[in-house]
Amino acid sequence: MFELYLLRPDAVKALEDPKIRRILPRYIRIVNAQTVAKFQVAKRIEFKPTKTDLWKVHTRLMKKFYETLKKLDKNQLKLDDLKKPKSSLLDLKIKLTEQIMTSCEL
After folding, report:
1. Same domain, 59 and 18
2. DSSP letters of the chain?
3. Do 46 and 74 fall within a single domain?
């Protein structure tokens, strides 16, 4: 938090605002190193590229994501215990986003 104060003293003050604390409780815990950011968890959920329906794979991996997040939040697991796979849930989300964007017309 000290580093944040040096870079953005106004941000530290904002984190003390009751409205911010009510709206962004997880963010406050992340800044205070009390929990991990969700993208850090998603980077550790393995995605094995496949030809099957990617949305079904996404649904399955999201269940694993929430199970893992719950264990991390309850201190039953540590982020450092999870390896970063070659392809992760984040990679799958990128593939799905690319598929969605190919059908968009601007």
Report:
1. no
2. -HHHHHH-HHHHHHHT-HHHHHH-HHHHHHHTTSS--HHHHHTTSB----SS-HHHHHHHHHHHHHHHHHHHHTTSS-GGGS---SSBHHHHHHHHHHHHHHT---
3. yes
Provide the number of structural domains found in the chain. 2
In whole angstroms, give the CA distance from residue 64 to residue 82: 13
Q: State the average pLDDT over residues 53-64.
A: 96
Q: What is the pLDDT of residues 8-49, one digit of tens each?
A: 677 777 888 889 889 999 988 888 888 999 999 999 999 998
Domain containing 66: what range?
38-106
Phi, psi (deg, nearest 5) at residue 51: -95, -10
Look at residues 36, 37, 66, 60 and name the one whose alpha carbon lies nearest to residue 48: 60
Residues 24, 4 within the same domain: yes
Q: Is 50 found in the same domain as 30?
A: no
Residues 27 and 44 in one domain: no
